Automatic annotation (TrEMBL):
Entry membrane topology: Multi-pass membrane protein
Gene Ontology CC terms: membrane
Family label: Belongs to the major facilitator superfamily. Organophosphate:Pi antiporter (OPA) (TC 2.A.1.4) family.
Name this protein carries in UniProt: Major facilitator superfamily (MFS) profile domain-containing protein
Biological process, per Gene Ontology: phosphate ion homeostasis
PANTHER family xref list: GLYCEROL-3-PHOSPHATE TRANSPORTER 1-RELATED (PTHR43184:SF15), MAJOR FACILITATOR SUPERFAMILY TRANSPORTER 16, ISOFORM B (PTHR43184)
Location in or out of the cell: Membrane
Domain Major facilitator superfamily (MFS) profile intervals: 31-484
Organism field: Urochloa decumbens
Length: 509
């Protein structure tokens, strides 16, 4: 299916009387893809905000480390607890577990769909695929909230709506990465994609604020408003998004520096040459040096990140902070600081990995540092609001840093690995493998949390710290290879220019 110039751009050029410039198209692509994936995450975040309304039980019997720090005056805290009747079937004794199963349904379908989305993107217009994914996501997100208006209490209705939303959302990431890759070269890839990847945290923050603000009108609106918003952004994408320079027939800006032009000759995602390149197989892509360890590392990184994504507002509203419980909306607003830290962490991880030319070392360092951050947030986060804010920000920075790095710069690096001999058709497959594997972890974490948290949040944090430890250990071999390569490069300076890829992707299989 041939890509066509978007109708909105045709109209703009007609009114303007001249074609749009290369630089303007780059800016337009960055803005539209940023808004697109931010809106995906805004709809994804809604469920975590509404959890405390659907299942409003305040669990005063939660276990803490150490327990004497958290013994509260029950009479004092009871006055701060505002209980509602909740929404059947989620307000029953097993409501927390049911909410975990809802998360699993969404993320499970999302992970499975991810493995097919890249393959589908090679055969259809990415702009159409992204538009359908966004409108479909908006429709089924709003349909989940419609259960309130139609007084639906059937668990399988909500389960089905989340599964369909997850299916449509799976087309988002491969599409936006492919479009950005068509327009931008790999110079300062970690920093540029670290900044661009802030759409994840921006979407989480905006989704939290919108959903929390809508709660006072009924939890249905917390789903309906983000659903309408992503559908509108999807229509904008349909009208304006150019998926590649060849689609609109423009040439590079004559004022581009020679070095920048050379860089543009090596895009993050090169368009496949018709009839010249054979698509890399699924098993073959797994054998690319670095793919397996980074994919498995992302499994545990996303397990941690998505547990916070789906359960942090619930955890905050069910934990006494400074001796009192926050309202559901206040907990939702406070949880956005985790994502603010995530923005900083993603940019910082990208910049450090560019400076060191060491993706694995950077990712592993962040994951190991996340372990004490999780421990301290659990112990001291309830002392006061100030402590909670500070520790939540640091935890978000360290948890989301490697997650952002692996899903963007690392995936692009490995998809253009030297062992492929220039075959550009591996990148979509590699991206799908890495993020798809990570998404399985994203499904497992929230599900386990739904069951474990009903007994002890301390056990949940133990699971998260263990996951961060395993994530870091999975990169040990690559870290050793990077350090060894750096030491060798210092002894033989000419060797440092032998490859333009990070040393983490240079090892032999």
């Amino acid at each position: 299916m041939l890509n066509k110039k978007p109708l909105g751009l045709q109209l703009f050029e007609c009114v303007r009387g001249s074609p749009i410039s290369f630089r303007s198209c780059q800016a337009l692509v960055l803005v539209l893809t940023f808004l697109s994936y931010a809106s995906y995450h805004a709809t994804r975040k809604t469920t975590s905000i509404v959890k405390s309304v659907l299942d409003p039980k305040k669990n005063l019997g939660l276990l803490h480390w150490p327990s004497h720090l958290y013994l509260q005056n029950l009479k004092g805290t009871e006055n701060n607890m505002t209980l509602s009747s909740g929404w059947a079937p989620f307000n029953a004794e097993d409501g927390t577990a049911l909410l975990g199963e809802i998360d699993l349904a969404f993320l499970g379908v999302y992970a499975i769909g991810m493995f097919f989305a890249g393959h589908l993107g090679d055969r259809v217009d990415l702009r159409i695929l992204l538009t359908i994914g966004m409108i479909g996501t908006g429709l089924f997100t709003a349909a989940f909230g419609a259960g309130y208006w139609f007084d639906i209490h059937n668990f399988y209705y909500f389960l089905g709506m989340q599964m369909m939303a997850g299916l449509f959302q799976s087309s988002g990431w491969p599409s936006v990465v492919a479009v950005v890759g068509n327009w931008f070269g790999k110079s300062k890839r970690g920093l540029i994609m670290g900044i661009w990847n802030a759409h994840t945290s921006v979407g989480n923050i905006s989704g939290s604020l919108i959903a929390a603000a809508m709660l006072k009108y009924g939890w249905c609106w917390s789903f309906a408003v983000p659903g309408i918003m992503i559908a509108l952004v999807g229509l904008t994408v349909f009208l304006l998004l150019p998926v590649g320079p060849d689609v609109i027939g423009i040439q590079e800006d004559l004022h581009l520096k020679d070095s920048e032009k050379a860089d543009m000759d090596t895009p993050l995602l090169e368009r496949r040459s018709e009839g010249k390149e054979k698509a890399v197989g699924f098993i073959e892509a797994w054998r690319i040096p670095g793919v397996a360890p980074f994919a498995l590392c992302l499994f545990f990184c996303k397990l941690v990140a998505y547990t916070f994504l789906y359960w942090l507002p619930f955890y905050i509203s069910h934990t006494a902070i400074g001796g009192r419980y926050l309202s559901d909306s206040s907990a939702g607003v406070l949880s956005t600081l985790f994502d603010v830290g995530g923005v900083v962490g993603g940019i910082l991880a990208g910049h450090i990995s560019d400076h060191l030319d060491a993706r694995a070392l950077t990712a592993a360092s962040f994951t190991f540092c996340a372990i004490p951050a999780l421990f301290f947030y659990r112990i001291y986060g309830s002392i006061s609001l100030t402590w909670n804010i500070a520790l939540m920000f640091v935890t978000g920075m360290l948890v989301n840093g490697p997650y952002a790095l692996i899903t963007t710069a690392v995936s692009a690096d490995l998809g253009t690995h030297s062992s492929l001999n220039g075959n550009s058709r591996a990148l979509a497959t590699v991206t799908a493998i890495i993020d798809g594997t990570g998404s399985i972890g994203a499904a497992v974490g929230p599900l386990l949390t739904g069951y474990i948290s009903s007994r002890s949040w301390s056990a949940v944090f133990t699971m998260l710290m263990a996951s961060a430890l395993v994530a870091g250990l999975l990169l040990t071999r690559l870290v050793v290879a990077e350090v060894a390569a750096k030491m060798e490069a210092r002894r033989t300076p000419d060797h440092a220019a032998a490859s333009d890829l990070p040393v983490s992707s240079m090892g032999e299989p």
